[in-house]
Amino acid sequence: MQDIFLGQDGTFIFESTKKEFELVQGLDTRFKNKDINSEVYDFVGLVCKKDKTLVVFPKHYYSNNLLKENEKDNNSSEQDVHLLFDVIQKYIFNRKSTATKFAGEKLDFESDYPFASFFSVYNYFKQFGIYNERITKTKVGYKGKISWKDTIRKSHKIYSNGNLIHLPLYIKENKSKQVFISDCMAFVIDYTLERFPFLFQLAKTNHKKTTFDFLENIDFVIRKLQEYKNQVFKDINKRLISDLINYFTEIEGHKKGGDIHVKIKYFNLVWEEMIGHYLNNHFSHIDNDNNLYFETENINSKVRFSKKTFQVDKSINNFTIEPDHYFIDDDLQYIFDAKYYDVLDHLNYKQYSYHEMLKSNKDENKTISALIIPSDNENTSEIHFSLADSYVKEGTSSTTIISQKLKTKDVMISYLNSNLNL
Predict the structure, then answer these.
(1) Which of 207, 238, 265 is the last residue of a domain?
(2) Angle between helices 267-282 and 408-417 (to 10 degrees)
(3) Does residue 118 lie within any of the structural domains?
(4) How many CB atoms lie within 10 A of CB 294?
(5) Which EC number(s) does UniProt give (predicted)?
């Protein structure tokens, strides 16, 4: 049974937890507001140490009270751990990255367990079951099933007392290779699911267990798999064996059950992608009081947001601006930006400049500008900035920037259920 410790990006970390999981200040933690008495988590992900696991959730996944309650009850947080891990895996897959050291441009993703190889092996299992391609090889011998076709074709013909004798005999050999590859595949799947029972909701293979110790004989396993790879015919099976080889090559350092890290340093990029899916699935409209509305049952918004680049500079520098989530139609221009912040406690100058450069002087082309931040409570809209009347130039509209809170957990669930290609 795993003991699960819970944390949350940006929240206080106890010194005992820091020491228990060997977290490093400046890498895994930081001082909030440069106060050395307020050290907080500075990553999202998991750190596993044999029978203990630390799970650090994104900002505002839990309220402070709920976080404390769940720290006392492992079972209450199990589904949340599944959700977090699934979101990380989907982001990596969408970015066409592998779970090695980095995943996605400028996204510091650390994983020292071969999850990418595991998922490739498991996908094969889902499609085809346990490996069962028969590999037949003949050899000279006298014990085993005789391959008469090869014996007649290859052996010498000897006549003795009026009888035709073929020598030597050729024996079929196939069982050991088929069973070995199948056992390797079952080990990779079942060992991973047993090692991380709190991460996956996947079925084990139910393959007969072998007494062979794969982790103590990794060099032998890799050598045999490389040998068998040259004897299979189908590309899909060659790929399976390649994935098995990669798995055993990468797990070498953790065969004794050493620490496993699955950490994302810059979750703001994940938040940005998730918000893109959420807007394009659920955004409905804005009312006259600057409240944003979302239809959570809707899975395809009529407003299609995307990242857009504007050439706003005519100097030799040719500077551009690039709003995260942009859409314009005949009446409205939306400039939304995903902000992975604890709070919005200072003027967001970048969003203000975007609004000023892109807004139209025509009244019929109203610009809606919003900053979207995580929340552990209900979705709410409020005014982040409203330009004072004395600063509004004649003939132009006032600049208003909305602060929109979205529940972190809802955004993550929507992201997993989204089929959009952004």
Answers:
(1) 265
(2) 70
(3) no
(4) 19
(5) 3.1.21.-
The residues that bridge with 44 in the sheet, in sequence order, are 264
Q: What share of the chain is helix, strand, coil (3-state, %, to 5)?
A: 35, 25, 40
The strands making up 332-338's β-sheet, listed across from edge to edge, are 325-328, 332-338, 366-375, 400-407, 380-386
d(CA 50, CA 219) in angstroms, rounded, equals: 24
| pLDDT tens per residue, range 109-132 | 566 788 888 989 999 999 999 998
pLDDT of residue 89: 82
End-of-domain residue from the set 208, 243, 265: 265
CB atoms within 10 A of CB 78: 17
380: pLDDT strictly greater than 60? yes
Q: What is the 3-state secondary structure (H, E, C) of 106-128?
A: CCCEEECCCHHHHHHHHHHHHHH
Model confidence over 249-287: pLDDT tens digits? 988 765 555 577 888 888 999 999 999 999 999 999 999
> Does residue 107 sit in the same domain as residue 156?
no
User: What is the sign of the dihedral through the CA atoms of 23, 30, 79 and 281?
Assistant: negative
Q: Is 170:147 a contact under the CB 8 Å cutoff?
A: yes
Integer CA distances (angstroms), 168 to 145, 153, 389, in order: 14, 11, 102
Q: How many residues are given for the chain? A: 422
Token pair in block for residue 264: 């994302």
Q: Are residues 272 and 410 in the same domain?
A: yes
- What string of DSSP letters covers 301-366? -SS--B---EE---STT--EE--SEEEE-SSEEEEEEE---S---S--HHHHHHHHHH--SSTTSE
Q: Please state, in angstroms and as integers, the Cα–Cα distance from residue 245 to each residue in 33, 117, 335, following that order.
A: 47, 9, 48
Indicate whether 105 pLDDT > 50: no
Assigned domain for 119 exists: no
Per-residue pLDDT of 70-99, as tens digits, reads 665 655 578 898 899 889 888 877 775 433
- At residue 39, the pLDDT reads 92
Decide: 228 and 181 in contact? Cβ < 8 Å: yes
Q: What is the mean pLDDT of the chain?
A: 84
Q: Which two tokens stand for residue 63?
A: 């309220």
What is the model's pTM? 0.77
The residue range of the domain holding 202 is 126-253
Q: Which of 318, 269, 330 is nearest to 108 (CA)?
A: 269
Output the pLDDT for position 84: 93
| 117 located within any domain | no
